Amino acid sequence: MVTGATAGIGAAFARRLAAEGHDLVLVARDGQRLADLAAELTGRHGGRVEVLVADLSTDEGCGTVEERLRDPVEPVDLLVNNAGISLNRSFLRSTVADETRLLRLNVHAVLRLTLAALPGMTERGHGAVINVSSVAGFGPVMPGSTYSASKAWVTNFSQSVAQSVRRYGVRVMALCPGYTRTEFHERAGIDMSRTPSWVWLRADDVVRDALRDLRRGRMVSVPDWRYKVAVLVLRHAPSRLWRALARDSRGRIGRTEG
Ligand SMILES: NC(=O)c1ccc[n+]([C@@H]2O[C@H](COP(=O)([O-])OP(=O)(O)OC[C@H]3O[C@@H](n4cnc5c(N)ncnc54)[C@H](OP(=O)(O)O)[C@@H]3O)[C@@H](O)[C@H]2O)c1
Q: Which residues line ligand 1 (CB under 6 A)?
């Protein structure tokens, strides 16, 4: 099962897993895009593709997907909690409604779906959950943005749960990509035109590295050597240095707000 499967990293997971011969359950809000992707994947690879239209920032949407995850007849062996958003507004100018929507999707849905998936997996003695986090979760690198705090939660949560289910043959991994070319920044209204081209990753490469790291039993996957170095800096360099490198303008007061 892949959430946020209609675009970006989620669509890359769906295409890769279908090509490897897996049946799929694809989750997102846009029913037409889901149906188009399902038709493309069955046409090309022949596997079964089920779609679930759900807004994971709502209780109802989470409930629909939880029910599918708990189905003992057609169990889900790999859950990719990928759907996530960022905001383009500093915390001081934000609203409770927007911050709640971000937390409900980036944090609450990840918690709920992981909790729905794991008991069946531990009973069966196999299965895996990939929670798509971000390099941004390793430090508050976007001044005034709450996005990195939500991703810090996802990484910490995944590592913690991973240790508790490992003995049952079940893996949980946080996937922490850097900047990846998808619809993500445009959807949030974040202007990335001044971001140098060398920082961008391809979604297909992120997914390839993630599945390799999952097979190797990693609890945290950081695709690409450039971002592995960035994580080392975030973890060990003096905060003065990474504050100077923090160029992402989401959350800075006044620069990108209307
Ligand atoms: N792109 C980056 O630079 C980057 C870097 C690090 C981490 N990430 C993380 O990677 C994950 C995927 O992002 P992406 O870059 O692939 O973004 P994207 O291209 O914008 O795709 C987001 C996907 O999530 C779905 N989605 C959004 N809101 C949803 C909701 N309320 N309920 C259900 N589905 C929803 C969207 O489909 P619908 O609109 O059809 O619902 C879409 O399929 C996110 O968790 C993001 O934080 C991205």
A: 3-10, 28-30, 33, 55-57, 82-85, 105, 132, 134, 177, 179-180, 182-184, 187
CATH of domain 2-245: 3.40.50.720
Distance CA(136)–CA(161), nearest Å, equals 20
Asked whether the beta carbons of 133 and 158 are under 8 A apart, the reply is yes
Where does residue 2 fall: left (phi above 0), alpha (psi -120 to 50 degrees), or beta otherwise?
Answer: beta
Indicate the top mutation candidate among 36, 68, 82 to test ligand 1's pocket, ranked by most ligand atoms within 8 A of CB.
82
CA gap 105, 85 in Å, rounded: 7
pLDDT digits (tens, 9 = 90+) for 129-183: 999 999 999 988 887 789 999 999 999 999 999 999 999 999 999 999 999 999 9
3-state secondary structure of 224: coil
Å from CA of 84 to ligand 1 middle: 4
pLDDT tens, 210-231? 999 999 999 999 999 999 999 9
Q: Work out the burial of residue 151: count CB atoms within 10 Å of its CB; fewer than 13 is exposed, 13-18 middle, 19 or more buried.
A: buried
Supply the residues annotated as catalytic: 147
